[in-house]
Amino acid sequence: MKSVENYLEILAKTHDLALATSVDNIPNVRIVNFCFKKEEPAILYFMSDRENQKVTEFGKNNHVAFTSIPHDGIPHIRSRKAVVQKSRYSLDEIKELFIANIPGYDQTIEAIGTSLDVFEIHVKEAAIITGLKAPDMVTF
Predict the structure, then answer these.
(1) First-last CA distance in the chain
(2) Is-contact 69 131, C-beta < 8 A?
(3) pLDDT tens digits, residue range 60-100?
(4) Do residues 140 and 8 touch, judged by C-beta distance below 8 A?
(5) Which CATH number describes the domain made up of 2-132+135-139?
(6) Is the pLDDT of residue 2 over 80?
(7) Please, how many CA atoms are within 13 Å of residue 26, restricted to the half-sphere of its CB?
């Protein structure tokens, strides 16, 4: 249980992920804003323009890897065991979560919201990195 608490604490301190895809053995990584619901720690949410290359890549291979990007210090979360899918939530259903957790996201939604889709990263297992010692693992 302590591992899940550490996982949530680290994720709460950032709103950026480096999200990696791979299609035909060609990796691609990009930074995305994300948020999560504490009651569903294994699901991370992000939005993307539905015409973006990464959305096409998800359709070809939905297995992804990511690392959270720390804003202060070393602690971060890393996973190679996650899948991405279009969210069960619409933009209108989840936009308040994004606005509450990502500074300035209300402006993003206002500017390009009609082109955005919501996606979910379903985390199966993640490493909790807090320093030089071996990482703790959390499995969902």
Answers:
(1) 11
(2) no
(3) 999 999 999 998 889 999 999 999 999 999 999 999 999 99
(4) no
(5) 2.30.110.10
(6) no
(7) 5
Cα 51–chain centre separation: 19
Q: What gap in Å lies between CA 18 and CA 28, rounded to an integer?
A: 10
Domain boundaries, the chain: 2-132+135-139
Mean pLDDT estimate for the chain: 94
Torsion of CA 95, 42, 70, 57, to 10 degrees: -70
Q: Could you give the CA distance from residue 38 to residue 59 in angstroms, rounded to a whole number?
A: 28
| Distance (Å, whole) CA 64 – CA 80 | 7
pLDDT bin (cut points 50, 70, 90) of residue 1 is low
Kind plus residue range of the DSSP H or E element containing 27: strand 26-33
- State the Cα–Cα distance between residues 82 and 64, nearest whole angstrom: 5
- Long-range pairs, 2-5, Cβ under 8 A, ≥24: 3/128, 3/136, 3/137, 3/138, 4/41, 4/138
Backbone phi, psi, residue 38, to 5°:
-55, -35
